[in-house]
Specification:
- With about 350 residues, the protein is mainly α.
- It folds into 2 domains: about 55 residues; about 250 residues, no CATH class.
- It contains 14 helices and no strands.
- It binds zinc ion (2 copies).
- The site of one zinc ion has 5 residues, from α10.
- One zinc ion binds next to loops.
């Protein structure tokens, strides 16, 4: 019985199979190599054409923007020259108007609109984009007054003196009120660098003030709002306001020896973006505030602005498991994301 089993398959058959396997091996390998080569070629083709399209797209976008900038650039250059000559010898006045007044007006103008929704719940078409359902509906007036008082204190007693001190530092580096405006490409490069500096400085200073020793004395203030609103973006302990709000934004222009025009746009943009990330509404066609809103809800996730450093340090691991993460996209239609991506039924119970 055993010998019969041993003999099956027969010797010749085994030999034949071995030979067949040997012959087919290179064929198999060739086939595999062919497949690998084919997929590499496909990947190369996709990547290559993708890159080509990106370069073509980027070039045409910047070309159009530059053309627009070039055409309107003369207009802005002429306006700037008028201001420059009107304030000749007193450029510091121009600097303080551009670096404090305009960004502050942007901040309060935008926040005034948001506060109408926070205090009245109207118009309803905005209120329906609220991220944390049922929160700040309407916002507590006492809590709001206290927040506005601290924000005004931070702006008047900290932001303004810091921007005043920034002027001699910029003068030491060069002249922020020089006659020639920066080119559009240079301005884009500056914005990229400002954003990267802010991401690094905000992330690490923010994680530092989350250390138990510092948290209760400093950062707890900002986290009193587990469901934030726009103005709360600057509701912070003065030490935090210097360390996490002001320095990360001020340092970029100092490094780049920027023109006042870049500084005005950057400060205004930074204030509008931080207001959006705290506003509590995920509105169409605006950057998603889900990331920082989740930070206020859970405290130990999502410390940065862009999310790059959170990804590298794994401080967004729990966030990535949530509905908030699924909703963390640029909303390109008018259906609120809480409707198109509803909470799972278990969560609602
Ligand atoms: Zn915050
Ligand atoms: Zn925090």
């Amino acid at each position: 019985m055993t010998s019969a089993l041993k003999r099956w398959p027969p010797e010749q058959e085994i030999q034949h199979m071995k030979e067949a396997a040997r012959d087919s091996l290179p064929v198999e390998r060739r086939k595999q190599e062919g497949q690998i080569w084919g997929s590499m070629r496909r990947t190369g083709f996709i990547l290559g054409s993708g890159l080509l399209m990106f370069v073509a797209f980027w070039n045409s976008v910047t070309w159009h923007l530059q053309r627009f900038w070039g055409a309107s650039g003369y207009f802005w250059q002429a306006q700037w020259e008028k201001l420059f000559h009107a304030f000749e010898g007193k450029e510091w006045i121009l600097f303080y108007l551009g670096a404090t007044l305009i960004p502050t007006l942007c901040f309060w103008g935008f926040n005034a609109l948001l506060l109408v929704v926070d205090t009245t719940g109207k118009p309803n078409f905005i209120a329906r984009y609220r991220i944390q359902e049922g929160k700040n509906d309407p916002v507590d007036p006492g809590k709001l007054r206290q927040a506005v008082r601290l924000v005004l204190f931070n702006q008047l007693a900290i932001s303004f003196p810091m921007v005043i001190a920034l002027y001699p530092c910029l003068r030491w580096r060069g002249n922020p009120c020089r006659l020639e405006l920066p080119t559009f490409h240079w301005f884009l490069l500056e914005l990229t660098i400002f954003t990267l500096i802010e991401e690094v400085m905000f992330y690490y200073s923010h994680r530092l003030i989350h250390h138990p020793l510092l948290y209760k004395h400093i950062h707890k203030r900002h986290h009193e709002w587990t469901a934030p609103i726009g103005v709360v973006s600057l509701y912070a302990h003065p030490v935090e306001h210097v360390l996490s709000n002001m320095l990360p934004v001020i340092l970029g222009p100092l490094v780049m020896n920027s023109h006042l025009s870049s500084i005005t746009v950057w400060f205004s943009l930074a204030l509008i973006v931080t207001t959006i990330s705290h506003c509590g509404y995920h509105l169409p066609f605006l950057p998603s505030p889900e990331f920082h809103d989740y930070h206020h809800l859970k405290f130990n996730q999502c410390y940065g602005v862009l999310g790059v450093l959170d990804h590298l340090h794994g401080t967004d691991a729990a966030f990535k498991q949530t509905k908030a993460y699924e909703r963390h996209v640029l909303l390109l239609n008018f259906t609120p994301l809480s409707e198109s991506i509803p909470d799972s039924p278990k969560k609602k119970e």
